[in-house]
C-alpha cells in the first residue's frame, strides 16, 4: 500500500525539517493507528527541532481529519477505513486551509 511505502521512505530521512509536506499528505491517507502514531511522532519532532509552533498546525489539522474520518466510518458503517476525501474538504464552506 502507498501509505506503507511512503512511511518506509520517510523513516529513512534523518532530518525532519524537509518532511512536513510529505508527512501531512501521507497522514491524510492513514487509516491505521500505528501509521498515525508514526506521523504524529515525526510532526512533534519537527516542532521540537524547529522551535516554531506554527509547524504543529499541520498535526492539529491531521488530528481533525482523523477524527472526522473515524466519525464518518461509524456513521456510514464502513469497515477498514478510507483515506481523506480532498474533494469533500474543499466543498465545505468553513474548511481549513494549510500552506506548508
Give a quick summary of the entry.
By secondary structure, the protein is an all-alpha fold. It has helices at residues 2-11, 20-29, 33-50, 56-76, 86-91. The two termini are 25 Å apart.
Topology:
Blueprint: H1 2-11, H2 20-29, H3 33-50, H4 56-76, H5 86-91
Helix pairs in contact: 1-2, 2-3, 2-4
Description of the molecule:
The protein contains five helices and no strands. Helix 2 runs parallel beside helix 4. The chain has 100 residues and is an all-alpha fold.
- Give the C-alpha Rg: 14 Å
Envelope shape: globular
Helix content: 55-70%
Mean pLDDT: 76
Distance between the termini: 25 Å
Structural class: mainly alpha
Q: What's the helix-strand series?
A: HHHHH
**Largest sheet descriptor:** none
Poorly predicted residue ranges: none
- Strand runs, count: 0
How would you describe this structure in keywords?
mainly alpha, 100 residues
Amino acid at each position: 500500500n502507498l501509505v506503507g511505502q511512503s512511511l518506509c521512505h520517510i523513516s529513512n530521512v534523518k532530518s525532519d525539517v524537509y518532511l512536513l509536506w510529505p508527512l501531512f499528505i501521507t497522514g491524510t491517507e492513514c487509516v491505521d493507528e500505528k501509521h498515525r502514531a508514526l506521523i504524529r511522532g515525526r510532526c512533534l519532532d519537527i516542532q521540537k527541532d524547529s522551535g516554531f509552533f506554527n509547524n504543529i498546525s499541520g498535526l492539529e489539522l491531521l488530528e481533525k481529519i482523523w477524527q472526522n474520518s473515524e466519525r464518518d466510518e461509524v456513521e456510514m458503517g464502513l469497515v477498514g477505513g478510507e483515506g481523506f476525501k480532498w474533494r469533500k474538504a474543499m466543498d465545505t464552506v468553513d474548511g481549513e486551509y494549510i500552506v506548508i
